[in-house]
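REQUEST ID: PR-0412
SUBMITTED BY: lab tech R.K.
PRIORITY: routine
TASK: structure prediction, single protein chain
INPUT:
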Amino acid sequence: MPAEELGALGSTQGLMRAGAMVQGFPKGDILLLETPFFSQTGSEEVRAYVQSKYNLALLALGSYLRSHSEMSVFLINMVKDRISEDSLIQRLRVSPPKVVGIPLYSYNLGLSYQIISRLKAEFPSLHVCVGGPHVGMFPDETIQLPHVDSIVLGDGEEPFLQISRQVLKRGCIDEENLPPGTTTKASHAAGHKALRWQAPDLDALPMPDLRLLGDHSRYRDFLSNRRMAILTTSRGCPFACHYCSSESSKYRSFSIGRIIDIMKYYQEHGVEYVEFWDETFNPNKRRLEEFADALTASKLRMPWGIRGAVVLHTPVETLRKLHRTGLRIMQFGVETAQPRLADYLNKRIDPQVIRDAFASCRAAGIRTVANLMVNIPGETKHEMLADLQFLEEIKATYVSVSVYNWAPGTTHYTDALKRGMLQRDHWREFATNPVGEEPIVHATTEVPIDEVYSTRDRFICRHYFNPSFVARYLRMVEPREALRAASIGRIMLTGQVREASRKLACRVFGRRTKISGRTLTPPLMGGMPEDSQLVSTTALAG
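STATUS: complete
OUTPUT:
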């Protein structure tokens, strides 16, 4: 990885309001902490991709506190800043914060709670407030964890602001005047059930304060290496896919004018590329067309991409208009082209619409990412291979193949428990006692799980290291992206060599080790949040 992607905490400029610096480390009363996210199913290149990002939820939270108070707020990204647990504790000893806010995701719960426990052992008076998707699924289990002081359900901005004010003033939360969406140990014991708080007007939220990120130039687009920023146009998802924990969320969107204002603000602050991280960027054709018209009228010209797009057949003219404004890449959730499996996923999808969408993007000069899911419950080997072949047919620029697992908080997980497909409620047990590795449980299909992973890995290598793909790719990208692609290829090959060495060791020594793609990343390296819990776009949202 380039040096700037692995750099230490950057410039101190613009951090004065967040608090003074102590030995190159920011300090303040309110700490927003992003804990490492290790993946048990992500590949090497996916882990590197996630490391290039920051947590948009924490940025939104810190921006809100700065806009509505004079409290000193600082943000630590343990992955990007390459900070170990020991280093974190050592540095915070100089000037301990009074409140820490941490978003929890089920797939990094074990490590996050380990860090929380270390913090409370070292700083007993520290108020630990947690939120995020995991808390929304397991609120009772989370508030009963010994080292958690409060939880937040819903949007976190206003609840965390009030929590911080009360703790700084009183040393604890006022149980007679609980902030909205908040539960404490005492209120939980009294039977209090907090209602999820939602920001009444997303447009009224403050501009993202990039100063919280320190030297923002450290964050680079994974492909072009441009200085990048993350943005969402909405919160929640309007669809109800049964494999995703977002199926119960309420969809709300920013106005298109507000989105363009934020893009302009980013550009004025040195951002060279914007990546949209919506759960669903284009809920319908009309919104995409309105965005194309407004962005064209704004005369804003800056490269941008879409991470979460639903497969809709958008007219080529609209896509060409978007391309002229700077749209470079769209990532689609294909998941499967098999009608039977799509019905099981509760995903409204038509293979021909998928083909048309990818063809239209190619005609407009927009690169595409196709996300596919394998090992779906009930999937046959023929269906898995047919889906992989379908990825080649639609000629996606990039492909991503994830391996299905029983994700918490989903219809599929609940049904699997009811039908006896899962013998235990693994995730609830882990939420109650988050020690060790997260309980990644794959569905049992006619294809052994080892074979699923090895088939996926072979397919990915064939796709990217095919001479015809390399030739097409070099014709469509800028020189800087070609150099970046070479670096990514090296990461992928390194992962393949490591896996081949592991398999050889298994044969020689007769040991069974973790299957392909599920080994933990080295210390301080980032990982890929599993499918249903990617970057949370609501601050401490539950």
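NOTES: The first helix runs from residue 44 to 51.
REVIEWED BY: pending
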